[in-house]
Every structure is written in structure tokens, then in C-alpha cells.
Task: structure prediction
Amino acid sequence: MSKKILSLLIIPTVIATTGIYLYFTYGFGNSPARTAQTFAWFRDPASRPDLMMTIGSKCGDAPFIFPTNGLIGFIWDDSFRPGHRHSGLDIFGGTEVGVTPIVAAYPGYLSRIEDWKSTIIIRVPQDPLDPSRQIWVYYTHMADAAGNSFVSEQFPQGATEVFVEAGTFLGYQGNFSGEPGNPVGVHLHISIVKDDGFGKFLNELEIGNTHDPSPYFGMALNANSNPDSIPVCK
Result:
């Protein structure tokens, strides 16, 4: 089978799979306008290049660079289901797994727990917005549906406190949900996690343990102040 034919088969599958994921994950929550825009973009990403963010770019004088190419489909405190509050950003590259690269948004010390197939976390000793506190930047979904990792070989499972500069290659966008055989849409989830006060990161799944990423990226990334729009750098 030629590469061209294979590509024609794969791309619609990627779009369909991601569309199903978006519908069942986000379609019943409190961000219907953003969900609708994200669906429309997935049907034809080339039609809205203005919604795409570029890896390594920076918005104004914000401290973080953008960690991957893609559309910011869902943001901090989007509510997809009753009782659910999204703790970070979901950035969709619009490609198949293992294609869209991810880089560090800010310098720090990278760790990867032994059983983390798709995830790394970077400790930032001095928060650029408040140097008196430490923060952690969490990146996940860097594996395929079966759990085959796309994290850079530089950071094997069990890696601890490896210093990385902003822009360091971390891996590729994937669709691993944490449960083999139950994929999510291809994207990067990134969040800014609070320190527990004793040098450890808090549970990223709880929004109260994370910071609003808006000032870190210089964009409207808080669903309370931006309930409907796809965020872009202005």
C-alpha cells in the first residue's frame, strides 16, 4: 500500500476518532460554543489557520513559550460534565499519533515516575509570576492507545530531576488515556500544578491544585472569563 493511500486512510480515521472523543468528553458540558468551534476546526483545520498556535512562540512578554503546534480546544475550568472542572489546557495538533512535537514551556527539573507511560512533570523552583513559590508543569497523553510511549528517550521512566531548558524536546502528542485500548483524541494536556509546601506536587486532577495558566501564556485561558472562544495570541 502506497504512503499516499495510507495517509488518505489514516487522516479521516484520526479526525473521526477525535470527533467521537470530543463529543462524548466535552459535548455535554458548559462550553458548547468552544466545543462547536473545535468540531468545525477538526473537519477542516486548513480553513482556520488563525486558530493554530505555533510551537516555541511566545505571546507578548508572557514567561512561557507555547509547547506544541495546535488549537487550544479546551481551557482551564471548562466544565464538560456535571461536577467536572478541567485543570489545564487541551491542545489538539490535528494529526495522527506520534507526529506533533512537544517542547518544554519553561526551564526546570524534569521527572518521570516509573509507571508513567505518557507523562512527565517539570519542577520550576521559582514561579516566574511569584518567585517565592515553586510550581510544577505537567504534560501528558504522550503515548499511543496501547501505551507505547512517545516521550523522548532522553527521559526514561524513573528519570529524576533532569534539568531542561525551555524549548527542549519532550515527545509527541498521543492518545493514551491511561487505560490501554480506550484512546482519547490526539492532543497534549498541560497544566500548572501547585507545590504541597514540602517540595512535592499536588494531585493535578483537582482544579484547586492548579494555577490559572492565563498569565503564564499571556492568553485568555480561563473559562470563567472566556466562556466561549478558542484562545489565540493577540
Observations:
- Residues 1-13 have pLDDT under 50 and may be disordered.
- DSSP finds three helices and ten strands in the chain.
